[in-house]
Amino acid sequence: MAKILISRDGVLEQTVQLTRERMTIGRHRHNDIVLEQPTVSGEHAVITTILDDSFLEDLYSTNGTFVNGHRIGKHYLQNKDQIKLARYRIEFVADGIRPLTGAALSPAALPHATFAPTAASLPPPARIEVLNGSNAGKRLELAKPQTSLGRSGVQVVVISRGPAGYAAAHTEGDRVPLLNGTPLGPQPQPLADGDVLELSGTRMAFRSH
Fold this sequence. Notes:
- Pfam families: FHA.
- It comes from Pseudoduganella buxea.
- The strands form 4 sheets. A 6-stranded antiparallel sheet has the order 2-1-11-10-7-8, with no helix packed on it. The protein has a 6-stranded antiparallel sheet with strand order 13-12-21-20-17-18, with no helix packed on it.
- It is mainly beta.
- The protein has 2 domains: about 1-95, Tumour Suppressor Smad4 (Sandwich); about 125-209, Sandwich (Tumour Suppressor Smad4), CATH 2.60.200.
- Helices cover about 0% and strands about 45% of the residues.
- The model is unreliable at about 95-115 (pLDDT under 50).
């Protein structure tokens, strides 16, 4: 789970885990993350987390939101990004790729996955598109060799990208995800364009075109 480290005048004041899909930052008390400083706008910015990715968006603040020295409107957060809001310095710390452990994720069990592939050997990046809920229409590019979807300890699916194409496997949690309405097991299942994954009620379509 990603987190942010909030400092002011060189002193760490808060460590906040990004546990919710949408977390607002601002001076007013109703925000998820309250920064009590006059030059912080009432509703200054928001961090939205979709699957394993987090995005920072400025909410038309008076003094702006800066990442790594550049003023931003919306920014895809990466590990160790430095955010500046008025006198506050905020470091974004990603949770990183979850360790791929267990027999289901060993190289022998993933014959179609390449753990150190060359760019030329991989298929073009595909996408996952959210079909329902508040994030309907949002897309996540599957550019990594492995992409984790879901919540650690609850339900995790890993999508592998190898020379033979894409495959999905259920790797963690007691809740069984569905692939086209059928339970997805620990053995990798090839994905085709239009296939639908369901995790904890969220339906996502695999798009290869």
